[in-house]
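Minutes, project huddle
Topic: does the predicted pose make sense with nicotinamide-adenine-dinucleotide bound?
PN asked that the exact inputs be recorded in the minutes so nobody has to dig through chat later. Recorded below.
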Amino acid sequence: MKIAVLAGDGIGPEIVAQAVRVLNVLRADGLPIELEHGLIGGCAVDATGEPYPEATHQLASAADAVLLGAVGGPQYDLLPRQQRPERGLLAIRKELSLFANLRPAILYPELANASSLKYDVVAGLDIMIVRELTGDIYFGEPRGIEMRDGQRVGYNTMVYNEAEIRRIAHVAFRAANKRQGKLCSVDKMNVLECTQLWRDVVTEVAKEYPQVMLSHMLVDNAAMQLVRYPKQFDVIVTGNMFGDILSDEASMLTGSIGMLPSASLDENNKGLYEPIHGSAPDLAGRDLANPLATILSVAMMMRYTFNQEDAARRIEDSVKKVLRSGVRTKDIVESNAKSVGTKAMGDAVLANL
Ligand code: NAD
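Predicted holo structure (tokens), as shared on screen:
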């Protein structure tokens, strides 16, 4: 089990350190885990001038899975676009062909009060957003800003071919099959031809999964339904840009961005696992960040890349026990209650592991 560990910037090193402690426990208990560390994002720019250096690419390519913290920070915001830390993320996803991003949004009953929505609307929420990650307007060409008729014009290209849509549709149907058997495909077919093709291809793939109930929804309606009645959803599948926005919205239903893991998979279930949040420069170096999203990313890694369902459950159960016992980092604590730091939260998870 070769794992490349890319801690990145900001709170990345602090939260990844806690996840590595969990991996070390699993290794001590017999899993053949090998860890190798590398640079990505701003720290890689500082060291090599590039956000995704060749050495990191070699390391990540040779690994079975990648554990990533987060990248970015205000000190890099003025760099040329190609050198920005976020380019490192886009590059690793593209270079490793990680086209399927799985983002669960689960509301732990103990944290129902952390949600900004009413308890009844979110209690027991368990949805999975499957976002296409290597296509769409984020990668489409042509793109740029140029002068036309004496004024600046900015443009990007939304593009999907049917093979790209078909492979992400299969991932989503398989995920729905393992869950409640409901899949909602989100597009904007009333305005965008590209997403008309999306709807057509997803509908074709549905014929191979008669046991899954497929529905379609326009993205504006989906954004609204997610806050009105999120429990109507089981699995949602959508393109890169809509998925970016909807998965952040779904994550906030659960109260804290610090709780949610994600997996990005290729066709052979090699995966990159990371919390959905960013590098939180406001918290960096202060032992304040919640490491649970990163620790739960290790659980997803055990499940999706290594087929170690027992190890995945063991980690998830430890997190549940920690929450049940009332231990909270600052982002999930109820007002005026006592909170613990990043490392103490790691201690609590390890004690329950
Ligand atoms: P962010 O996710 O870093 O932070 C948003 C808010 O959530 C902040 O208030 C932060 O304190 C809080 N937060 C985030 N993670 C937390 C955790 N583990 N525990 C407790 N609170 C947490 O998003 P942002 O502020 O928009 O971006 C900061 C930097 O991160 C930017 O440079 C951005 O480009 C980058 N970014 C990176 C990724 C990634 O690496 N995948 C994703 C998003 C943003």
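Observations noted during the meeting:
- The first helix runs from residue 12 to 28.
- Residues 140 and 157 are 5 Å apart (CA to CA).
No decisions taken; revisit at the next huddle.
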